[in-house]
Amino acid sequence: MFEPIPICLAMPDLPLLLVSLPAGFPSPAQDDMEEPINLADWLVEHPAASYIMRVDGYSMTGAGITDGDLIIVSRAKKPVAGHIVVAMVHGDRTLKRLKRRDGRFWLVPEADGFPDIIVDEYVEIWGVVVGLARKYG
After folding, report:
1. Of 75, 82, 83, 70, which Cα lies nearest the Cα of 127?
2. Nearest C-alpha neighbor of 95 from the set 48, 42, 59, 51
3. What integer pLDDT is reported at residue 12 of this predicted model?
4. Catalytic pick from 59, 77, 99, 135?
């Protein structure tokens, strides 16, 4: 499905515009207040335990994750109900939301046409999604 890529890249510092950017109504322009930001440092809290994975499929479109997106996955973060996780199910990786129902954990897709998966002895929660990158255009 997707192969993990270790995070060992040093992204160049990019300028960060320190102003709020309204996504609703336009607001007056402000002076540029820039400082550099390293996106790898900003996105990745535990580099030695983090991976970048490319998403293959559409089962998480309701969570805003779609085919071709890059996700940052942490193996250092403890998975809890509500997290989006990468799990190994019978040896195959899948991306789902971890939910708790009736005292059991489930891997739940966020798109129609995909089944819920009960977390049992054949399922290992491999990591927690902590970031998403998508290139437009």
Report:
1. 75
2. 59
3. 52
4. 59
Q: How many CB atoms lie within 10 A of CB 7?
A: 20
CA distance 58 to 17: 33
Question: Annotated catalytic residue: which of 20, 50, 78, 96?
Answer: 96
Q: Give pLDDT tens digits for 63-112.
A: 999 999 988 899 999 999 999 999 999 999 999 999 999 999 999 999 99
Candidates 133, 134, 132, 130; CA nearest to 83 is 130
- Strands (E) across the chain are located at 5-6, 13-17, 34-38, 50-54, 70-74, 84-89, 92-101, 104-108, 117-118, 123-133
Q: CA–CA separation, 36 vs 10, rounded Å?
A: 14
Tell me if residue 74 is catalytic.
no
Residue 96 is a catalytic residue: yes
